[in-house]
Amino acid sequence: MRELAAGPGRVLSALGDRMPKGLYARSLLIIITPMVLLQAIVTYMFMEKYWQGVTARLSAATTKDIAAIVELYQQMPHDKGTTDLLQLVAQKQLALGIEFRPLEDLPPRGARPFFDILDQALSDEIRMRIGLPFWIDTVGRSDFVEIRVKLDDAVLRVFARRSQTFASNSYIYLLWMLGSSLILITVAILFLRNQIRPIQQLANAAQDFGKGRDVQNFRPRGAREVRQAASAFIEMRRRVERAFEQRTAMLNGVSHDMRTILTRFKLSLALLDENSPEYEDLQKDVDEMSRMLEAYLAFARGDAAEQAEPTDIAALLEELRANAIRQGQDARVSFQGDPIVVVRPDAFRRCLTNLVSNAQRFARTILITGVREQRYLIVTVDDDGPGVPEESREDVFKPFFRLDEARNQDHGGTGLGLAIARDIARFHGGDITLATSPLGGLRANVRIPV
């Protein structure tokens, strides 16, 4: 029973996999499928009832005329005068072309045509009304139907116009059906395109906002529900921007007050004797406090106020390589694809700088690679350091998290380097993941949409 129940499920699942994924294509399918089914049903009913019925009546009338000729021939003398008279009557009154040929075998019956309504109707009528051996050809000559009836001493050969036996004007109906279907489908495509466009614009605006880009010239359009969604998005964006502005104003105030206190500490420290045993320790504490304060503020503030702009990523990676070489590391850089990517330049530089600085603390060799794909920018930082245990690779992105192992990603730091880097990557709509490097150390992989 389970297998029987699973059968339809597998069919529906396979059908779902082959269905279009886009709203535009699915909407068209919803409209066009019933239309095509309706047209097919109507056409079938027309073919089955009207067309076949008309063809049967026309075939019956033609068969009656042939039957009358056969009856007259059988009742009259079989001479040339009789045949000439019958030919004249058939041509003038019945619009049939006939001739009497010497008795011979009828041709073998050919293959039935694919569209054999006429063959079937005409054969049934001849079989019922005449009852003699016969042969018909409905495809040999496009404008005529040929009928041969085997008599006692001759073969009657009849040529009838196709319109006498067949509803030949039915193509007008079929053309009308096809034309109306094309018009309806065209109207549906144009209508749906106008309805889908506001949804696409809303999706693009949300995507740009998620990447930290400025959303310009966007306003609610389209159907009422789409306008409601667009208005909700605009209101959400305003609240987010307002929250960023309030946070930035608050952090600027905190930064100003804390820097004022640090300045007092530095002034007080300057009044102390540099040779006193407390001076060096106090100087280290003040420097550490200043550095930690800047890191905390940078993590809390982020780079929301910075505008995204086209940036040369290859030049940025080369700058990071030069800085690493100046600090004594063996650094190499490679880049593939178009280097111009729209990012927040200072924020993205800080993201990569934190990753490279993290590698510099524990490794001698650093390999920085960049790849611009069709949809993503991928920057990879490899090193030959001790690496990070797999079970701790997500924890190191938590603020203030520190490793007890040999590789402490913020040795001498604040525990915010990787947290800031991931926060920036996610603000661009991407992410950072860690893995084992081919060099033996840690691999940091930055992936953001472009």
UniProtKB/TrEMBL annotation:
A GO term from the CC aspect: plasma membrane
Keyword terms of this UniProt record: ATP-binding, Cell inner membrane, Cell membrane, Kinase, Membrane, Nucleotide-binding, Phosphoprotein, Transferase, Transmembrane, Transmembrane helix, Two-component regulatory system
Membrane topology note: Multi-pass membrane protein
Lineage: Bacteria, Pseudomonadati, Pseudomonadota, Alphaproteobacteria, Hyphomicrobiales
Single annotated GO MF: phosphorelay sensor kinase activity
Localisation per UniProt entry: Cell inner membrane
Transmembrane listed as a keyword: yes
A Pfam family: HisKA
Reactions performed catalytically: ATP + protein L-histidine = ADP + protein N-phospho-L-histidine
Principal localisation: membrane
Known EC number: 2.7.13.3
Domain of life assignment: Bacteria
Transmembrane parts of this sequence: 23-47, 171-192
Protein name, as recorded: histidine kinase
